[in-house]
């Protein structure tokens, strides 16, 4: 590709035409319309064209190489006066000068800059004033505009009107306004518009007027008839458009052109996103192109906004994410791809809610579920509808799609928070990054490779073994199921002469390791290692089954003893550890008493000193907390059935403790002190029910 083609790519024919259009001595009396989808690169192309080969325009008036360019967005303009005001704004600050009076129209000023010789639109009323101010304006404007800039010919003026389709006025009126530039003042105008919206407006504004008639039908119902009349005047839209717009082009900018322009190989000037983002994203240009290429529409403006969002997410000077955490290019690629796909997908309206999930919990942006099976259930129950987000970006590798446990939930929670409220939880993001194979989970990742160690290369196999020994030395493997899974494989490896120690030496070392971390080991019921585990899942376990079972039982004994001790301490210290003023503390205790999330044996309520229970109850100054406590006791006793018979002594003591504590308070009693009556009554009701339970049990035993 030639150097010219590299600069303008698929739009070289537009650049060639504009070269001739802007540089002829007799300026054409028509405008050029450049269309394209929203965000497709229209403004980017014009900036690049007017700025020359080496830079993109930043200051329209002064940066363009051969022209003075007035750039005006017509977004939301409602009238000619609004459009005049936009033009005047762009000529600030010279128009705010005390020497210059404010003109009633922008056309005279445009004419002066362009050196127009045609009569000033607007009539003689403003002509006299313009005559007085002309010389002062021209001199002052030139001096301000060209200060420390290369002298340019003011007759080489170009006006770029952007967002033409977003002007809030009729298209014939808008084109009539622009016609005064090209026909009367002979100022070259370039119009930028969204292709689809332009066509819609073009079609809709062919309807010039509506006539509504009506009649009263049955039961007083009014029937309306709308008659649309097509505008057939000489100044209809089609004739005006043909007169004003002499040439139309559609921009076709490729993702490669845009990314290369944003992240050039040789950075000679300030970059569009700043040096930090340039340095971070430059190694990932292929990823950026891939995201754009896979999106349903190449919306470069929305993608630029997404990169700007990433810049804010990272924070100025890496305020939100430490620079030290962004040194791993593979990790960065996964994080950046996830962030940009999420944000860009949201801007393209590709994210949607999954009804089956929203039914369970309220989620504003169901980002976490956008990459499921690729199919979703639409509002009408059709299960074959493709998920637009997954269809576009589902095959791009992201940090939330890593195979490790909880990565999806962890990272999608971060993206959802950002998409919902643009909030960055620095600690959450830092913890998520550190919990990866590139940081704290590095040893864990390589140690897990021992599960299929014989499939690794020699180098990878040695790294896996080294990670295991380092993890044991630093005592970071605390999950008992992980320890057992590693033990039975490595005992086998040691028996085959793979390890530096013998099988017995390895076994002794691992048993000692378990003893050393006994107080820190995570809890597990070890149910997956019960009998027949190996026969059902992994025959390797059976190779040295007796040794493996012995190791499992060693861990089980430690966990059982520790749990028993913890339960005893919890019961013994409950009064000192319980905070009655903390609602969360109260809720947790009530859940334990009622066995909401556990079994009766997990929290041995009946082993608590009854006097302590009575004092805890009185300490609940919040009435609702007091009710929760009583309800929790009722629920527990209901679940015990005949088990209450074994706790008869406890029930008698608890009733007595409640009554004695109430009696111990000086009179008059407070409401909370008097409420001990209800605690005693609840317990008393169950005591009264015990004789019936005993009879029922006796009858069942005699059957």
Structural commentary:
This protein is of the alpha/beta class and 703 residues long. It folds into 4 domains: 3-205 and 236-250, Rossmann fold (3-Layer(aba) Sandwich), CATH 3.40.50; 256-420, no CATH class; 477-568, no CATH class; 583-599 and 606-702, no CATH class. The chain is 55% helix and 8% strand. Strands 2-3-4-1-7 form a 5-stranded parallel beta sheet. Strands 5-6 form a two-stranded antiparallel ribbon. The N and C termini lie far apart (98 Å).
Topology (SSEs and partners):
Layout: H1 3-8, H2 12-23, E1 31-36, H3 42-51, H4 60-63, E2 68-73, H5 80-90, H6 106-114, H7 124-145, E3 157-162, H8 171-184, E4 189-194, H9 195-204, E5 207-216, E6 222-230, H10 237-244, E7 245-250, H11 255-262, H12 275-281, H13 285-294, H14 300-314, H15 329-347, H16 355-358, E8 375-376, E9 385-386, H17 388-393, H18 407-421, H19 426-434, H20 442-448, H21 458-474, H22 480-495, H23 503-516, H24 533-537, H25 540-543, H26 545-572, H27 574-577, H28 583-594, H29 610-619, H30 623-640, H31 643-646, H32 648-664, H33 671-674, H34 676-702
pLDDT below 50 for ≥5 consecutive residues: which ranges? 1-5, 96-104, 116-130, 229-237, 353-381
What is the terminal separation in angstroms?
A: 98 Å
* Strands side by side in the biggest sheet: 2-3-4-1-7
Helix count, DSSP H or I runs of 4 or more residues: 34
Report helical residue fraction. Answer: 40-55%
Describe the global form.
Answer: elongated
Given helix and strand content, the structural type is alpha/beta
The CATH architecture of the largest domain is 3-Layer(aba) Sandwich
Strand content: 5-15%
User: What's the pLDDT, averaged over the residues?
Assistant: 78
What's the β-strand tally?
A: 9
